[in-house]
Specification:
The complex is a heterodimer of chains A (316) and B (245). Chain A is of the alpha/beta class. Chain A contains ten helices and 13 strands. Chain B is globular. The longest helix of chain B has 31 residues. The chains are: A alpha/beta (316), B mainly alpha (245).
């Protein structure tokens, strides 16, 4: 399959915002970053229009954090160019256009939530109203609490509040839910969507497929420092060649199923056959016409993103 | 920057370790020593020990404060990711280190004022207003080399190393600089070391002011020289610690 699929960007029908917002929020061209001999990011090209919510999906060590640190001006690319709203990353940060929640980061233990949020908010030229920040991060009841008395999940919420406090046009989140339980995760993504819904651009890194699927309108899969797939979650699943045709096999023989058109793999579990196929129509057609099997309980499922992800990020 | 100075100051004032080392120690030791030897009179200067001890303990408090409010908090901020959090806001890089220095200077004032107050109230120390003003100003600005040393330590090592290192430097400077015992009591080798230390220069300026004398040029030049060298170190290590890799 093709390693990069830039053509999918154009299939989406979402209207581009006009005038000033028309420029790309993020643009990487030919960006490379090495650490000594190790190539962490390998000729990355990526353009993200303003107003989108994009997931940067990849396994550990794929180059996600390096990419994000370069985007924020914390790391310099070894070669290539990065623009954030047409500026260098450092300049965009200095102009208050970027807010971020990095993977690690604790707060000042002796300061309260309100003091910390108020201080960071005050560093930006055009921040969100204070009460709104607390509401969005669900911190209103914790405003007077000192940072050293917060739980892990509460600390994450404060860090989210710090990231959005300045009303940045670009919000960057590096594996934001890594330390959260299920309940906190759901609440977190709700907050993120509230922020994105105001027309802000959001880029988040994750290695959770579900998160990428559910919370973004575009998924950029990276592996070994390169973009290996780019599109909506549905497009990526389809592109990775995967649907699954399953039916109740019972005691019938499974021989020959793997020879049906489109089938790439056959699994039999608890009396059900699951055929992984690149062409579900052809497979089903052949199943009825060319076999003598008694087929019932037929189901066709999209391959889950997990399969697509594994197929895309596998070591060659 | 004023907001940054405010939260950094607040944060240190709420820190128990700071309160103990910077406020309780110097005032407590002043009360103890002055009670024991406060009435002794120095033959050459005619000064009561209560006055000399006031300068020594204020110097110790200011020295401790300037190092405690820089080395460990700064190392912790680098390590914990708070520095990165600040680096992705519009806050300029120079502003972070300037804020640290201002806060460190502000935080020496409580120990200077409290030791002075203890001396006035318990030992009846009285100085002409001009001497008070000169003393406070000299002892206040004189901590710049120590704040710079603290920042250098915080830039160079991790928090768990910065803690003992800052302590050793602080007690070493206090002890060898003659803040705890007069250097006249020390063997000659230690005396030579004392003369080379900024803490001795720092306290000497104070002792001369309360004696109504102009501080010796050697002490003033000593503190300026140390200040320049340590400030250069602090800036160099700060740049190295915060530079984009």
């Amino acid at each position: 399959m093709s390693r990069r699929r830039p053509e999918v960007w154009n299939c989406r029908s979402a209207p581009r915002a006009s005038s000033v917002e028309d420029m790309d929020a993020i643009s990487f061209s030919g960006v490379t970053r090495t650490y000594g001999d190790v190539l962490a990011v390998d000729g990355l090209d990526l353009d993200i229009p303003a107003g989108r919510t994009v997931a940067l999906l990849g396994p550990n060590g794929a180059g996600k954090s390096t990419t994000i640190n370069m985007l924020l001006g914390l790391l310099r690319p070894t070669s290539g160019e990065i623009k954030v709203f047409g500026d260098t990353p450092s300049r965009a940060v200095a102009r208050g256009r970027v807010g971020a929640m990095l993977q690690e980061g604790s707060l000042i233990p002796e300061l309260t939530v309100a003091e910390t949020v108020g201080f960071v908010r005050g560093l930006y030229p055009d921040p969100l109203p204070f009460d709104e920040i607390l509401r969005m991060a669900d911190l209103t009841d914790l405003a007077g609490r000192r940072a050293d008395r917060l739980s892990g999940g509460q600390t994450q919420r404060v860090r989210f509040a710090l990231a959005v406090a300045g009303a940045p046009r670009l919000l960057v989140l590096d594996e934001p839910t890594a330390a959260m339980d299920v309940e906190s995760r759901r609440a977190f993504w709700d907050s993120m969507r509230t922020y994105a819904a105001r027309g802000h651009t959001v880029l988040f890194a994750t290695h959770y497929l579900e998160e990428a699927d559910q919370n973004s309108d575009r998924v950029v899969v990276i592996a070994r420092g390169r973009v290996v797939a780019d599109g909506t979650a549905a497009e990526i699943k389809a592109g990775a060649g995967g649907q699954a045709v399953s039916f109740t096999l019972g005691a019938q023989p499974a021989a020959g199923l793997d020879a049906l058109p489109g089938v790439v793999a056959v699994e039999i579990a608890s009396g059900r056959a699951v055929l992984r196929t690149s062409d579900a129509d052809a497979t089903v057609d052949a199943l009825y016409r060319k076999t003598t099997l008694d087929v019932h309980g037929l189901r066709i499922d999209g391959a889950d993103l997990e399969d697509a992800f594994l197929a895309l990020t596998q070591e060659p | 920057m004023p907001e940054h100075v405010k939260i950094e100051t607040l944060r240190m004032l709420r820190n128990k370790r700071y309160a103990i080392f910077v406020v309780a120690f110097p005032v407590g030791f002043y009360l103890l020593y002055a009670n024991l030897w406060g009435d002794q009179v120095d033959d050459t200067t005619g000064l009561k020990a209560g006055v000399v001890l006031m300068v020594s303990m204020a110097a110790y408090g200011a020295l401790a404060s300037s190092m405690m409010s820089t080395a460990v908090p700064w190392a912790q901020e680098r390590e914990s990711g708070w520095l990165r959090q600040l680096q992705i806001t519009p806050l300029p890089r120079w502003s972070i280190v300037v804020t640290k220095l201002i806060v460190s200077l502000l935080l020496t004032l409580p120990s200077l004022v409290l030791v002075g107050l203890a001396a006035v109230l318990t030992q009846g120390v009285s100085l002409p207003p001009g001497q008070w003003a000169g003393l406070v100003l000299a002892m206040w600005l004189g901590v710049i080399p120590f704040a710079a040393l603290g920042l250098t330590i915080g830039s160079l090592v991790r928090a768990d190393t910065a803690q003992p290192l800052a302590m050793i430097c602080m007690f070493g400077l206090a002890l060898l600089g003659g803040l705890w015992f007069p250097i006249d009591m020390m063997p000659s080798a230690m005396k030579a070391i004392a003369h080379a230390l900024p803490s001795y220069d720092y306290a000497t300026i104070g002792w001369n002011i309360v004696a109504g004398q102009a501080p010796p040029a050697s002490a003033v030049l000593g503190i300026l020289g140390w200040g320049a060298v340590l400030a250069a170190f602090a800036l160099y290590t700060y740049r190295r610690a915060t530079v984009r890799a």
